[in-house]
Design brief:
One of its GO terms (biological process) is regulation of cell shape. It is an enzyme of class 3 (hydrolase). Its EC number is 3.4.16.4. By secondary structure, the protein is of the alpha+beta class. The chain folds into two domains: 248 residues, Beta-lactamase, CATH 3.40.710; 102 residues, Peptidoglycan synthesis regulatory factor (PBP3), Domain 2 (Sandwich). Helices cover 36% and strands 25% of the residues. The strands form six sheets. The chain has a six-stranded mixed β-sheet with strand order 16-18-19-14-13-17, with no helix packed on it. A five-stranded antiparallel β-sheet has the order 2-1-11-10-9, sandwiched between helices. Strands 3-4 form a two-stranded antiparallel sheet. A hairpin with a 2-residue loop joins β10 and β11. The chain is elongated and about 100 Å long.
């Protein structure tokens, strides 16, 4: 009896130990789970911190653009229309380079001579070479130089404004309207002189990347100091570049400042580093006495681009397969009702790289016809490959037929039957 009780007690102890071990195991699992979950949350927070977009910018409108593709990498009210002050002069400069000659003589009108400060101080009747006026325009931001250029290149300020608006439209600037060549606040029956941060960045991209005169544009806007005289040699002038950003960051490429009462402080600038070119455009970036706000915003946006965006090859091989063609000529199986032809993607390069953040992924989708009726020509489009990022189309390629297939018509049947049944017997 005592032995039986002892065995019972041992059994109870064993069960109790097992329960304790199970409880301990559950506790360990819960601890590991909670710790792991906490670790995961920490990692997520670290990733979010790593890709956190710039905050607390002073500018009321700001964008960061990839100058190679024109893709907007960051935008704060980027499509809001605002006055842009002397950042206007990048358009004046590039049009003067494209439509004028550097050694062209530019005469000064009374209207040009009457422009407010900041001005060169040109006098009615004087003449200057366009080359020299461009340095005056871009380094010192002289308002009279802008009008002299406009009146001589565009025949009038209004004529030059038409050229500016035509170029803006050509570049895809849908929310920009130019009235003056110098950016002074102005309005007419069509509206006020304005742009958007996105459009301003788009114009800068053209000036430094796409224009046939981009090299001269960069030469002018990167010059620190410049001296010149009027065409007669009687009056001497000196210009100093006021784009302080050129000395602020390694790789600073070009830029233009601006200020008016309506616009506030504005800036558009560019930077190149390790094959990447970024453009920053800022509008309404403070008013006096906050002249330095534009430099803080520019550096913040440029550093964001430099730290988070790298080139990645996104090209993918697409399994295009074949296309089933009905009633087409197949020399190997002449009387089969259908045949298949190979397909290929037209125009793809071996490598296609774009700037991407670590957390960005390009989606590649394709669609194509499953079948077609003959005839089908070689290179005929039967589908499309689409590369998209965040729902935005980056690029598309056509899926085309790799060979041609003629149609089986009455003449083909007669000729084929004659060859098979008569010529072979002969």
């Amino acid at each position: 009896m005592a032995e039986q009780e002892r065995n019972t007690d041992k059994g109870k102890m064993t069960v109790l130990k097992i329960k304790r071990r199970i409880a301990a195991l559950i506790l360990i699992c819960c601890t590991v789970y909670v710790t792991g979950l906490s670790g995961m949350k920490t990692q997520m927070r670290e990733v979010q911190a790593e890709t956190k977009e710039p905050e607390n910018l002073y500018a009321q409108s700001a964008v960061l653009m990839d100058a190679d593709s024109g893709r907007i990498l960051f935008s704060k009210n980027g499509q809001q229309e605002r006055a842009m002050a002397s950042t206007t002069k990048i358009m004046t400069c590039i049009l003067a380079l494209e439509y004028g000659g550097l050694d062209d003589k530019m005469s000064v009108s009374a209207y040009a001579a009457s422009q407010p400060q900041v001005h060169l101080g040109a006098v009615k009747g004087e003449e200057f070479y366009l080359r020299d006026l461009l340095y005056s325009l871009m380094l010192e931001s002289h308002n009279d130089s802008a009008v002299i250029i406009a009146e001589n290149v565009g025949k009038s300020v209004e004529g030059f404004a038409d050229m500016m608006n035509a170029k803006a439209k050509e570049l895809g600037c849908k929310n920009t309207y130019f009235i003056t060549p110098n950016g002074l606040d102005a309005s007419d029956e069509k509206g006020s002189h304005h742009t958007t941060a996105e459009d301003l960045a788009r114009i800068m991209k053209y000036c430094i990347m796409d224009s046939p005169e981009k090299d001269m544009f960069l030469e002018v806007t990167r010059t620190s100091n410049y001296q010149f005289t009027d065409c007669s040699g009687k009056h001497s002038y000196s210009c100093t570049n006021h784009n302080a950003f050129l000395q602020m960051m390694k790789g600073a490429l070009s830029g233009k400042t601006g200020f008016t009462g309506d616009a506030g402080y504005c800036y558009v600038g560019s930077l190149k580093d390790k094959g990447r070119t970024f453009i920053v455009a800022l509008l309404a970036c403070g008013w006096p006495n906050n002249k330095s706000y534009k430099w803080a915003d520019t550096k913040a946006l440029m550093n964001y681009g430099l730290e988070h965006y790298e080139y990645r090859n996104i090209r993918q091989d697409v399994p295009t397969g074949t296309l089933k063609v009905y009633h087409g000529v197949d020399s190997q199986n002449p009387f089969e009702p259908e045949t298949e032809i190979p397909l290929e993607v037209a125009g793809t390069a071996e490598n296609w790289s774009i700037l991407l953040r670590d957390d960005e992924k390009v989606n590649v989708n394709w669609e194509k016809k499953k079948n077609a009726e003959a005839p089908v020509g070689k290179g005929e489009k039967v589908g499309e490959v689409r590369y998209t990022l965040n729902g935005e189309l980056l690029k598309s390629y056509d899926i085309v037929s790799g060979c041609s297939i003629p149609e089986k018509n009455a003449a083909w049947y007669i000729k084929t039957i004659f060859r098979l049944y008569f010529l072979q017997k002969v």
